[in-house]
Amino acid sequence: MARRITIGTFSAVVIWCAALFAQAPASKPDANLLQLMRGTLYPASNVLFAAQEDPSKQPKPADASTSPNPLTTTYGGWTAVENAGLAIAETSRLLLIPGRVCSNGRPAPVSSADWIKYTADLRKAGLAAYQAAKKKSTDAMGDVSGTVSDACQACHDKYREKKGGEKDRCLP
Predict the structure, then answer these.
(1) Which residues of the chain have pLDDT under 70?
(2) Which residue in 163, 141, 124, 122 sits closest to 37, CA to CA?
């Protein structure tokens, strides 16, 4: 009996520690802002923009399970377009993680009111793209592509497109 209590207690402690670890925030983000953009937002937005033409007309790969094109993978077509909209919406939250830096090492302005607004607009644009993709309509994707582009451009105009180039990024 004593052994069962010890094993049970040990198991409870392990589960409790695992739960704490899973909820503990990372000390700092793993990717800088440029890496996050290139790894998530850029490819997801390209899927959305490509869906202004019928995704089912993409050339079929020899093996969809190994296709590097999101539109022709096993989960391609309109499913990929829906997922791209959701990826943009979800990634917008990653842009707000404290400690994120720009590619030049400057802190991303995650607590600035305009940055928070830009990320909220990006999230709305991603969700709008998801809703448009569910319609499986190239016209709907054409309409929402401008919304996505505008959301990206608003932030880029202020924080990315600088006369001094990369060294001045993330400065207001």
Answers:
(1) 1-26
(2) 122
Beta strands in the chain (DSSP E): none
pLDDT at 97: 96
Separation CA 9–CA 3 (nearest Å): 10
Distance CA 65, CA 86 (A): 21
Q: What is the pLDDT of residues 85-135, one digit of tens each?
A: 999 999 999 999 999 999 999 999 999 999 999 999 999 999 999 999 999
Q: Which residues pair with 101 in a beta bridge?
A: 107
Q: For 29-168, CATH number?
A: 1.20.120
CA 133 centroid distance within chain = 17
Answer for the pair 91, 148: CB distance below 8 angstroms, yes or no: no
Nearest to 83 by CA among 119, 16, 32, 134: 134
Rounded Cα distance, 79 and 77, in Å: 5
Q: 150 Cβ partners below 8 Å, 6+ apart? A: 125
Residue 156 tokens read as 């880029």
- Give the global pTM: 0.81
